[in-house]
């Protein structure tokens, strides 16, 4: 039996090392980072090990050699010098009021001022920060290390609130600017976060930061690679397989399907979500661990605000400039969704510099689409999973009437802001419903100009459906027959249903469906 203790939710390097928690050695990469540059920025999704990275850097710059015993760093570092460290963690506040950011900055500054002194002329946050950096260096005789965790939390929480965003931006921009103005007193600086706000944002004064978010040599700095998984958890993989009553290869395949698949640049190895992976090993169960720790509703607000066609999400295309930066005035929700970890890089066109995006794995894909359902359809969050279960059951037993009655209820009482683009709304609801059903039965979904065609396959039934907007159910059925959509299933032994469906703009709902059995 494995004796590994998994550090679920533990982000402190010293605690992990002193208490014998499982740790994947990232210290060779950290050494490389420190020795080859001075200022860095790195974005990764939440729960990906960013705070642990900063905690490891803190222990290293404190000269705590004993914590690195048995790790790559022990052999690499010879000097173990202690530096003054200013570690700012913006993750602990809820940024919902104008003074919430001021409070946390002031609290940190006061603490540092107790250590390194203050001057009466330092009246703004940026002047105080710059003064602290200089005095910390002068008093200790060593340049300062600056670690900023979740630098973007205030900006992210204020998405959709222009007044708050502007206030936070105007506060953080000069504050972070001290990193540049006091360069001579600084040994090393790194900012981490989920997103990179660009253009007129907090970064415009910080052009000395090396953004390693998409650098191939640092893709393994946070998260766990397939190689690391097999090198460090091979015994546990066998135990996991035994606990689930499956073979070793099957457990590896399931873990890959559920938690791997994050690609932070093109042609790079896939990375596992460390939070979900370690939870799966601890409990020997596949669960939506990362997803259940909270999906920000601001992502859904962005999608709805910009009238985004959800079907595009699974095969979105964009370039590095868009992926790398979020302009707070932008109408494109994709950079935030990519940087937040709900989409990842699937392919890259070298000639045109275009990235193809998609969901990284099943946990994210199913979790995100499930999360969207109550925001688009007339169903509450508690009932939502049960509704999908009922849909699947009805499809499996051939009860298409109950299925369509349930679908009608999803369109009832559609909020006004969603029906300004009625065609997009009805396509989005159908996409969510059939995407979720598709995790349990085979589903092929296509849209074009006001119509949706869909094929569902279960063990006993095949459904060929055509949805029209402002046409008739008869026309929809006629199209199935005229275009021979059902022809590929002529020799299939399963019972075939051809279903024409019309969606009425006037009633904003499914008006009628007609079913034809097994004839072509």
Describe this structure in words.
The chain has 520 residues and is α/β, with parallel strands linked by helices. It is 42% helix and 17% strand. It has 20 helices and 15 strands. The protein has helices spanning 13-18, 27-35, 50-61, 72-76, 100-116, 125-140, 153-157, 162-181, 226-232, 234-244, 248-259, 274-283, 297-305, 320-324, 334-339, 362-376, 384-397, 400-411, 422-437, 473-482; strands at 39-43, 85-89, 144-149, 186-193, 210-211, 224-225, 271-272, 317-319, 344-349, 354-358, 442-448, 451-457, 461-469, 495-504, 509-517. The strands form 4 sheets. The chain has a 5-stranded parallel sheet, with helices on both faces. Helix 6 runs parallel beside helix 8, helix 10 packs across helix 11 (248-259) and helix 16 crosses helix 19 (422-437). The protein is globular, with a radius of gyration of 27 Å. The termini are far apart. 39% of the residues are buried.
Question: What would you say about this model in short?
Answer:
The chain has 520 residues and is of the alpha/beta class. 42% of the residues lie in helices and 17% in strands.
Architecture blueprint of SSEs:
Elements: H1 13-18, H2 27-35, E1 39-43, H3 50-61, H4 72-76, E2 85-89, H5 100-116, H6 125-140, E3 144-149, H7 153-157, H8 162-181, E4 186-193, E5 210-211, E6 224-225, H9 226-232, H10 234-244, H11 248-259, E7 271-272, H12 274-283, H13 297-305, E8 317-319, H14 320-324, H15 334-339, E9 344-349, E10 354-358, H16 362-376, H17 384-397, H18 400-411, H19 422-437, E11 442-448, E12 451-457, E13 461-469, H20 473-482, E14 495-504, E15 509-517
Helix pairs in contact: 5-6, 6-8, 10-11, 16-19, 17-18
């Amino acid at each position: 039996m494995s004796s590994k203790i998994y550090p679920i939710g533990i982000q402190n390097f010293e605690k992990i090392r002193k208490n014998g928690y499982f740790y994947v050695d990232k210290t060779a990469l950290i050494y490389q980072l420190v020795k080859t540059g001075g200022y860095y920025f790195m974005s990764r999704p939440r729960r990906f090990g960013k705070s642990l990275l900063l905690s490891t850097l803190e222990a290293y710059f404190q000269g705590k050699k004993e914590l690195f015993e048995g790790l790559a760093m022990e052999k690499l570092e010879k000097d173990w010098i202690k530096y003054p460290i200013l570690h700012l963690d913006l993750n602990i506040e809820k940024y919902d009021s104008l003074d919430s950011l001021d409070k946390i900055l002031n609290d940190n500054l006061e603490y540092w001022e107790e250590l390194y002194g203050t001057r009466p002329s330092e009246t703004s946050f940026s002047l105080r920060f710059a003064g602290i950096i200089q005095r910390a260096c002068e008093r200790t005789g060593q340049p300062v290390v600056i670690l900023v965790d979740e630098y973007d939390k205030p900006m992210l929480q204020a998405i959709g609130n222009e007044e708050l965003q502007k206030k936070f931006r105007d506060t953080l921009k000069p504050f972070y600017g001290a990193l540049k103005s006091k360069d001579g007193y600084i040994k090393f600086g790194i900012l981490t976060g989920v997103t990179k706000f660009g253009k007129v944002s907090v970064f415009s004064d910080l052009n000395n930061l090396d953004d390693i978010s998409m650098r191939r040599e640092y893709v393994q700095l946070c998260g766990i690679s397939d190689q690391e998984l097999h090198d460090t958890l091979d015994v546990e993989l066998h135990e996991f397989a035994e606990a689930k009553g499956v073979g070793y290869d099957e457990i590896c395949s399931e873990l890959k399907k559920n938690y791997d698949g994050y690609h932070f640049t093109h042609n790079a190895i896939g990375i596992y979500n460390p939070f979900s992976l370690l939870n799966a090993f601890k409990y020997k169960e596949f669960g939506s661990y990362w997803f259940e720790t909270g999906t920000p509703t601001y992502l859904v607000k962005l999608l709805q605000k910009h009238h985004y066609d959800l079907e595009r999400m699974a095969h979105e295309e964009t370039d590095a400039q868009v992926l790398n930066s979020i302009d707070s005035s932008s109408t494109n929700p994709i950079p935030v969704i990519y940087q937040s970890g709900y989409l990842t890089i699937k392919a890259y066109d070298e000639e045109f510099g275009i990235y193809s995006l998609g969901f990284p794995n099943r946990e994210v894909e199913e979790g995100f689409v499930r999360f969207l359902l109550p925001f688009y359809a007339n169903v509450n969050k508690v009932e939502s999973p049960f509704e999908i279960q009922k849909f699947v059951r009805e499809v499996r037993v051939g009860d298409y009437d109950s299925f369509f009655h349930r679908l009608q209820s999803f369109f009832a009482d559609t909020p006004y802001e969603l029906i300004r683009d009625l065609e997009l709304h009805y396509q989005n609801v159908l996409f969510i419903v059939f995407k979720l059903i598709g995790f349990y039965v085979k589903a092929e979904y296509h849209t074009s100009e006001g119509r949706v065609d869909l094929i569902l396959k279960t063990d006993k039934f095949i459904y060929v459906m055509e949805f029209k907007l402002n046409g008739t159910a008869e026309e929809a059925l006629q199209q199935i027959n005229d275009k021979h959509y059902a022809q590929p299933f002529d020799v299939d032994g399963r019972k075939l249903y051809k279903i024409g469906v019309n969606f009425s703009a006037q009633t904003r709902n499914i008006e009628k469906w007609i079913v034809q059995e097994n004839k072509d």
